[in-house]
Amino acid sequence: MAKRSAPEVNAGSMADIAFLLLIFFLVTTTIETDAGLNRKLPPIQDENTPPPPLKKKNIFQVLINQQNDILVEENEMELGDVRQAAIDFLDNGGQGCDYCQGKRDPASSDNPNKAVISLQHTRETDYSTYIAIQNELVAAYNFLRNREADRLFQMSFTEMEANFNDAQYNGDKDLLESRIETIRDMYPMKLSEAEPKESK
């Protein structure tokens, strides 16, 4: 009796099927990316150009030591009080700020355009504490920006930025961009993050 040979499987289209599956998974898979910290670095300046002069009263110093204690203007402060202290400093309105609602303390900042917040830490500071302080300082800027945007445009600054970054927003993006710039000019984010200090 003659042996029957087993029929061969045609594998010619297997490469095409594998290629189609690969394309399908590449197109449909979403890859999560870390957002990171949203910071705009200052422009590079010529080394021969001296930095602009700053009055000491226009600098709000925040230091985090190796025990994660928060020192604001050399006084110990709780994390929950940092935001309000920064708001009071930025919104003081000592000179030429008709929209500021602060106490106009002559010992505090002259104007939001001149006010600088300096954040410094030691190398032993916990990362979580540093980020928590940074969030409070950014929240102070956001509070003031939201207040002014709501007063001028009846929309929060956060909402305006979200709409501007939304690809499906149907409104006038040029108008929105000019309004965002107006608010940023009123309360520019001048948050200086200095090099870590060596602990003693």
TrEMBL record:
InterPro entries: ExbD (IPR003400). It is a single-pass membrane protein; Single-pass type II membrane protein. Keywords: Cell membrane, Membrane, Protein transport, Transmembrane, Transmembrane helix, Transport. It is found in: Cell membrane. Signal peptide: none annotated. Pfam families: ExbD. PANTHER family: BIOPOLYMER TRANSPORT PROTEIN EXBD-RELATED, EXBD MEMBRANE COMPONENT OF PMF-DRIVEN MACROMOLECULE IMPORT SYSTEM. Belongs to the ExbD/TolR family. This is Biopolymer transporter ExbD. It comes from Mesonia mobilis.
